[in-house]
Design goal:
31% strand; 36 strands; disordered C terminus; single chain; alpha+beta
């Protein structure tokens, strides 16, 4: 019967959808239609045409085409009851089609052809008008069809497809013009991108390549069926600042004056948690001064200027304080070459941005680097290209960089000249080498050189397959409780990657004490919680568990330095956290911090690892972690 499949998929006690008990008795063509915007597991539009007492339905993932050149996939779904012509509301999550459904358009239609393989019809709606044809796909699955508009929409004459393979317009460098004929638009130092929004989907293009930006995942669904092409900049924190409009719903807007394009932007529903319009102000010297005071860029745009894709035009003038104040010359004796070189392609983070990060965190980072030999991990061509470890810098370190010859058991040579980074200049030197990661041991060199006894114990919590930092936090809480038995306190920090690390300031008489203590604690936790914790390094033993890596206390090993960047897709940072944050962590994203987040975080918390520097170092218990004498 016509509605058997519809009823089989729905429980009338759980869904607000109409679920008629009887099948319809009406036959004949019918002439009503409805198009519903359906925010289910994936956004799509449901096209429903009345026929023989039911609504014959297709799900259209990208919505109806607005021009005659675009083909859209349409998936034939089960027939729906006529009551669905007026249905909108929330289908509970977990139910079939769970999500929000709203009426996008409704009206009357005319049937021109109806067969098993072709349906031609003319819609008379407010948003959907004109002739369309549905053609059964020969290649696609059993329920696959293609939807095409066969004549222009009378409400949108001359509609054209979304342009592809274009590039942003570029300005010339110079002093910002002022006066009524110009506007000043603020720039935030991000990477120039083009953003395509089409059929509820978003594509972010940088230099012609599509990049993934998780912070913008909801952008496409939020604008629904509206098709547009935006010029924007993307910051390292995943914030999108929208500056211009190239295309809107079948219309090329490039020929419009800038002020008209921006007015259209202001009317669109673009604002969201990680996106907003880049502000535009009158071209007044006082405005320029205020922007300079914040260390930001501006681009001066002629008010009546068109948008010329992929071209450089004097109608735009790149000016402002950020370009002038950017650390393109390095710091002191540490020069910075090629400052605009992109080291993190996903976010557009440049070498100058890397230096800016290390300058921002220098006051809190340098005390944790003091007297610790540094192993650098360098990405000279960016994080998407090969990297290499560098310990011995004897061949290229400038004379003002302090080095110490330290033994390297198991290395290529018996010893190496490691750098010690003691100043902002030293951080700038490392940044210029694209040394994104700085690693240090749990011991220091003495005033006359030579390795001192370890002053830190580290518990490196590494999530195995199927686990995240959330599970690491639960293990960290267990370690906190075990340490409390001996009145010991450790301090947590993200690794900047997937895991968590706990640091315990200690004083020991034998270097081996720290690794012995960490191993005993790890083995105790693994014995008490064998389903969630392992102390064994083998990867096949880690699946579904957190590995408490006690071996990082080996004096030949290092861990990432606090406040160091990581060579990941995004510029994440090894960031100290509070125990309250550890206990509250329920999502992996709760403990992910990028370079842009650090200044505000330091303003709020200061250096959360300061106790490692100034508190009295704790003595390790004389017994093993299992309770027996050691």
């Amino acid at each position: 019967m016509p509605l058997d499949e519809y009823r089989r998929k729905r429980d009338r006690s759980r869904t607000p959808e109409p679920v008629p008990a009887e099948d319809p008795q009406v036959t004949g063509a019918g002439d009503r239609f409805v198009i519903q915007e359906h925010h289910a597991r994936a956004l799509h539009w449901d096209l429903r045409l009345e026929r023989d007492g039911v609504l014959v339905s297709w799900a259209v993932p990208k919505g109806l085409p607005v021009d005659t050149e675009t083909l859209r996939l349409a998936v034939r779904t089960e027939d729906h009851p006529l009551e669905y012509l007026e249905f909108s509301g929330e289908i509970p999550r977990g139910e079939y089609g769970g999500g929000t459904m709203s009426i996008w358009d409704t009206g009357r239609y005319e049937t021109e052809k109806w067969s098993e393989r072709e349906v031609a019809f003319r819609l008379h709606g407010d948003r959907a008008a004109g002739r369309y044809v549905l053609i059964k796909s020969e290649r696609d699955r059993r329920d696959g069809w293609l939807l095409k508009r066969t004549e222009p929409n009378p409400a949108r004459p001359g509609a054209t497809p979304l342009p592809r393979d274009t590039a942003p317009m570029r300005g010339v460098s110079g002093a910002a013009p002022t006066g009524d004929g110009w506007r000043l638009q603020v720039r935030f130092g991000g990477r120039r991108v083009l953003v395509e929004l089409d059929g509820g989907r978003v594509r972010v293009l940088a230099d012609g390549d599509e990049i993934t930006v998780r912070s913008l995942a909801d952008f496409g669904p939020s604008v629904g069926a509206t098709t547009m092409l935006l010029d924007a900049e993307l910051t390292t924190a995943g914030e999108l600042w929208i500056g211009d409009l190239l295309f809107l719903d079948g219309r090329d807007t490039c020929a419009l004056p800038f002020t008209d394009r921006y007015a259209l932007l202001e009317e669109l529903p673009l604002a969201g948690p990680h996106r907003r319009l880049a502000p535009v102000y009158p071209a007044d010297p006082a405005v320029l001064e205020a922007v300079r005071a914040q260390g930001l860029d501006v681009v001066a745009k002629r008010a009546d200027s068109p948008y010329v894709p992929a071209a450089e035009s004097a109608d735009w003038v790149e000016a402002g304080a950020r370009a002038a104040a950017a650390p393109t010359r390095g710091v002191g004796r540490a020069g910075l070459t090629n400052p605009r070189k992109v080291l993190y392609p996903l976010t557009g983070t440049t070498k100058a941005d890397v230096l800016a990060h290390y300058r921002a965190v220098a006051p809190v980072m340098l005390p944790h680097l003091a007297d610790r030999p540094v192993t650098m991990v360098r990405w000279p061509d960016g994080v998407e290209k090969p990297s290499f470890f560098e310990k011995d810098v004897s061949r290229h370190a400038p004379p003002w960089i302090r080095t110490e010859r330290v033994g390297t058991p198991g290395g290529r040579s018996e010893s190496a000249d490691f750098p010690l980074i003691e100043s902002e200049e030293g951080l700038a030197w490392a940044a210029n080498l694209a040394a994104l990661e700085l690693h240090v041991p749990q011991w220091k060199v003495g005033p006359r050189g030579g390795r001192q006894a370890p002053d830190l114990v580290v518990f490196d919590l590494d999530p195995g397959e199927g686990t995240t930092v959330v599970e690491c936090c639960r293990v960290a809480e267990s370690i906190f409780d075990v340490l409390a038995e001996d009145s010991l306190v450790a301090y947590p920090r993200t690794s900047g990657g997937k895991g968590l690390q706990l640091y315990l300031p200690v004083t020991v008489t034998r270097a081996e004490q720290t690794i012995e203590f960490a191993k005993a604690l790890a083995e105790r936790l693994a014995e008490e919680s064998p389903r969630t914790v392992t102390s064994v390094m083998a990867k096949q033993r880690r699946r579904g568990k957190v590995f408490v890596d006690w071996s990082q206390n080996n004096t030949a090993k290092t861990t990432i330095a606090s406040y160091s960047l990581r060579g990941r897709a995004r510029p994440t940072v090894a960031t100290p956290v509070t125990w309250e944050e550890v206990r509250a962590c329920r999502r992996a994203s709760d403990l992910v911090f990028t370079a842009d987040a650090l200044p505000a975080r330091l303003d709020e918390h200061g250096d959360l690892l300061e106790p490692l520097l100034f508190t009295e170092r704790q003595r390790l218990p004389r017994r093993g972690m299992g309770g027996s004498p050691s």
